[in-house]
Amino acid sequence: MIAGLIGKIYKKNVTNILFNVNGVIYEVNMSLNSISNVKENDTLLITQIIREDSIVLYGFLDKNEKDLFDTLIKINGIGPKVAIAICSSFKAQDFINIVYSNDFMSLKKVPGIGEKMAKRIMVEISGKLESIIPYSLPQHKKEAMEALESLGFKNMEVIRFVEDSKADNVADIIKEVLKNIKK
Predict the structure, then answer these.
(1) Looking at the 3D structure of the chain, how many domains does it have?
(2) Alpha carbon distance 98, 94 (integer Å)
(3) Residue 84 sits in which domain range?
(4) Closest CA relative to residue 163, chosen from 179, 181, 143, 141
(5) What is the mean pLDDT of residues 110-114?
């Protein structure tokens, strides 16, 4: 498997680049976000998809974007084209914010995604977001998250409230979150 490439841009197209790695030119499909920022001698993180009739490379400059792509293609009915369209439309953190706020209308704006698929993506990806961007919360906020999860709340439901909390101890964070959830 190809995990990454370091080389020079041979040719840049709208949706892919031809990448010269020591005389071997690879066609690498990329999101619009990545392709607009790729420079000479950049390292591309690669997801290689092998099918019966093709081998396709998808390249990313950002590990979070690659993780988002890899997570999306694991959802039933989401292929690499739709996943790359999502990565082109949103940065990984913006996509996570859309999922946390349950804003499926924003997701519907991505080419190839209708209302039904947008809602399904929201449901299926909600438990997998932690693997995309691990949150670096202070210890007292991590403990509050664990306590809220033990009370039956899903991480996705409360992370935004915990992150925004100004409290400096676990008990106050939990009280604040519970008050905000009821609103």
Answers:
(1) 3
(2) 6
(3) 63-131
(4) 141
(5) 88
Q: What is the pLDDT of residue 18?
A: 95
68 and 121 share one domain = yes
- DSSP state, 12? E
User: Which of residues 131, 148, 163 is at a domain's end?
Assistant: 131
Residue with tokens 């989401």, as numbered in its chain: 78
Query: Are residues 50 and 74 located together in one domain of the fold?
Result: no
* CA neighbor of 121 nearest in space, from 79, 170, 178: 79
Residue labelled with tokens 């959830």: 181
Q: Report pLDDT for 130.
A: 63
CATH number at residue 42: 2.40.50.140
**Length of the chain in terms of residues written:** 183
**With a threshold of 0.85, does the pTM exceed it?**
no
Q: What is the 3-state secondary structure (H, E, C) of 79-140?
A: CHHHHHHHHHHCCHHHHHHHHHCCCHHHHHCCCCCCHHHHHHHHHHHHHHHHHCCCCCCCHH
